[in-house]
């Protein structure tokens, strides 16, 4: 039997890297603990619209929503359509004016004079000011978005008139700048203001200044949340936008993508966040088509989970459009908002303007030590499948460490850090399972006489140690990617699909170096491994073989399809209910791949060794148990999730896995006993 030695010096190198990972992880934990204030935001138009629907005075409803917990109101750019409805502006197409004149329904002498003087054209749009400030802002923005040649003043005075050369149907939908009146009204009710401007075509510095000049005189503007495909100032004036944001100390709000991976696509968003020294907050909004399907209690639960697990600090709430049973529409929405506020307060959040991470970047030296530890883990793995002399191990370790660390020490190396994180998530679960396999392989006392009680103890202790070693790999992942870009998810972990597959390939390699897949004993050197693979490929195709292959293919489809953020294998209703229950009773819901699949397989694997089950079955259990360990390390790849929550999630999974594993072991033992008893029962005719 080949003896695989665990190089103690390499283990010491891993320990050094682990200490560096712990230091970075502790710094990161402190940042995440201090980033706990959530901003509850609603659209200004949602509240005013609800007031109109329910016949409630706007000031009264505004105060009710503020008392319920809303922190800020989002104010969008105005349009001619909205201003027409509010009576602040009158906008009418020239064709309509001419038609009224011809039919004799034109009573306003001013318009009759314009028409008779030939100053009204059917293709133009005519705008009359009813409110001086609003008219001035509309005129200013039209001049910016069109040109002086297309915007002409027909008449000055108390009710000035503009003639605009544009299509009425399109013009009434155009964004025409932030309304000073709306922002002042929102601030007057005691709300912070979240401004939602759009960019200009061929934007100029004067255009950018016009937006910020309107914001300058509004008290309590907390942040900017851009609308459209571009941020203000894109492509060439982002530095000027940043300058004005910093002058007014504004936070950049970045809306999470509906697939919960990074953000809605807006050109210039990430460069703007970096230039603003990462003064940014992550925003979540329940999709408009999804909210009606959620009961308010379910939506409240989602908000809490979102803020806890994804570092969301701006909750953009929408109104419910249908009342709950026994409540008015106003009561339904006020109770919903108050429920979100109360649930957040119960979970140690505070309510107010969103907090944001400082521009944190860990020490390059600590990062280099983490890379050193991961590299040592990689070299150690190689020695456990293909032993080679220590001096070559150290040479390989030195060359790889120097090559990988130099770019990081020079202040760059983001791709190297991402690769290191991927390797950590792959290597440590495989090393933990390899170590456990070697322990059982060397334990000559394990055999058919090993009792159930001892198996339960050995399984529980072994699983605990194995899980902790896999969590160590997760902490390497959480440390090497720990900077503000990853915490905000401006940069992400790379290789999610790979870390679902690679550990299974590597543990297969490990297994083939120690055991034969077939009952006949083949040599376990490279030639023997090749013969095993050849025998698998030449195995006759029976119906049972096809059924087995189909089962494996379906399992692989589910396993890989459930990874990542793209639409894949759907989650069953039963699993959703189980998730909801675990989220209610546990600090961090453990993953089903761990406590339902991987950890019980670990216990059954121990029984398989003790009972000398067929080698192919033992191999299958090794692979399934490795799935659970790989899931543990992959948990830490979600950098937006607080590192403490990922750690507790792993421990919760261990606890649930022990429960399920013990149940599985006892269940198989009872089944084995029943089959034994039934096998000894005499036939009925005897």
TrEMBL record:
Segments crossing the lipid bilayer: 360-385, 392-410, 416-435, 456-480, 492-512, 541-560, 595-610, 617-633, 653-678
Keywords: Membrane, Transmembrane, Transmembrane helix
InterPro entries from the UniProt entry: DUF5693 (IPR043748)
One Pfam entry name: DUF5693
Domain of life assignment: Bacteria
Keyword match Metal-binding: no
The protein's name in its UniProt record: Uncharacterized protein
Organism: Propionispora vibrioides
